[in-house]
Amino acid sequence: xxxxxxxxxxxxxxxxxxxxxxxxxxxxxxxxxxxxxxxxxxxxxxxxxxxxxxxxxxxxxxxxxxxxxxxxxxxxxxxxxxxxxxxxxxxxxxxxxxxxxxxxxxxxxxxxxxxxxxxxxxxxxxxxxxxxxxxxxxxxxxxxxxxxxxxxxxxxxxxxxxxxxxxxxxxxxxxxxxxxxxxxxxxxxxxxxxxxxxxxxxxxxxxxxxxxxxxxxxxxxxxxxxxxxxxxxxxxxxxxxxxxxxxxxxxxx
Length: 253
Hints:
The chain is an alpha/beta fold. It has nine helices and eleven strands. α3 (105-116) crosses α4, α3 packs parallel to α5 (150-162) and α5 (150-162) runs parallel beside α6 (180-195). The radius of gyration is 18 Å and the shape is globular. The model has no long low-confidence stretch (mean pLDDT 92).
């Protein structure tokens, strides 16, 4: 049963690539205004999990509901109209920005608003400029992605996702393609969104950020959830030996 403020419910989710099980029996939920941090070693299935929830990969089994609407139930997908409606509730920020290189910053943010939401040019520009101001990039509206730093490009990609007014925003290792000195500016943007009670799921290797910003943490390894709970429990006082081994270097700092 989905509660009224439950934005995401995942039950017994599985994903296979041929005979390779990448996601095995994953279950969790995220409520409105919460930040879920997902941590774990490379190859643990974190990004595949996000891609399944965002309809970029088909699941092999299990159920996913977004905002009370069934995306897939026991491995069977809903009709196209329902899937499209769910897609509008979800925003995804990729590792490598995925901006259109031949579009200006402004057009990168306005194009989807016009195509997906049916907004006119003036409406789309007004939303884009407001978001660029929020991201500290108002002066870059006419620039092209190649003229921006990696941190600036990622802020534009966050603005583009927010422009479609998603109910939940997913981040797939949003700082992994950035130099360490640029990582902080992206984490600051996500922290600000968390303060505004934006519902978010963040796959990250930044342990201190995950601990300080998340309401709940999932630690994944080998396609399963090894441990989940409050950051103070999972990161500061992990119970599972595999979690302890993964976090040891962080905890010893």
